[in-house]
């Protein structure tokens, strides 16, 4: 990867004023930028929705295939809730002002089968810094049969990606709990991460150990305890992950892979022709800003603009911040992308996939 950098010559005043207004909001309202009791309640609820179905199956008292599928899928919804509404804030350091609390709550990522340390590089460092930038944002670094940016080569198969993409979205967390973390940790080492003496090998061991723990209680224990053929339980387990993968993919993809978002390519020196703050506004879109229930369920990620600008602030504050950000953006004639509903955002995402498949 090139030594990427942003053009700092423009829009500095916008960034300065926006941040001063957000800081003033918290000072005037005497509110902490971190989570509050509502985050603790959400954590308990989401972890319960994830773990209770698994515990019920591990008792061996349930033998109905239909109920096994229902419990696994319910657990999958809880897994998505943990990923979007609990660990996401913790690993950004916005769940609590106490770093240890963030660290231990962030381990919920490991409990659902993925690596917190690898995710922090992929998401916090690469995606948040270089959103929609070729060679920087790992979220648009896809296998050849997917095309998420107009700056990569188009193949004939891409014209159909809007049809088959859903299958691969469903497989995304299955990939995560099997190979993705191992592939990424090696690639990130080659990029300069995990390069201290012994750090890479130690990280690989951690990844393997956490995955072993996850498979033990999420799949092996039900296989031992449930008096049903193994293929039924394995299929139900895969169904859980398919549901989780679909939920998480749609929430994140509808915020960046849309028609009015920009996809910048750095020049030969690695310079990105945008101020970082303006870049986040140009590459990120909100949706369904008035839906409080939906926002609660997905951890405030319908306010992706505010999240990208202020990832150190807990998502419970994004609704209020959106008023400040949108008003300041209008004042400085800076783009502020938003879709009224999630359905509208999803429709736009599909149109973008079709567009990327044609040209």
Short description:
This protein has 359 residues and is mainly alpha-helical. It has helices at 12-29, 37-58, 65-92, 99-106, 108-111, 116-129, 161-190, 199-225, 230-256, 276-283, 292-297, 304-309, 318-331, 342-358, and strands at 5-6, 271-272, 285-287, 337-339.
Give the secondary structure arrangement, pairings included.
Elements: E1 5-6, H1 12-29, H2 37-58, H3 65-92, H4 99-106, H5 108-111, H6 116-129, H7 161-190, H8 199-225, H9 230-256, E2 271-272, H10 276-283, E3 285-287, H11 292-297, H12 304-309, H13 318-331, E4 337-339, H14 342-358
Parallel strand pairs: 1-2, 3-4
Give the termini distance in whole angstroms: 26 Å
Main pleated-sheet profile: 2 strands, parallel
Radius of gyration, taken over Cα atoms and rounded to an integer in Å? 21 Å
Number of strands: 4
pLDDT averaged over residues = 95
Distinct helical segment count: 14
Structural class estimated from helices and strands: mainly alpha
Low-confidence stretches: none
**What helical percentage do the residues reach?**
55-70%
What fraction of the residues are assigned to beta strands by DSSP? under 5%
Give me the side-by-side strand order of the main sheet.
Answer: 1-2
**Overall 3D geometry?**
globular
- Number of discrete domains: 1
Give me the strand/helix succession.
EHHHHHHHHHEHEHHHEH
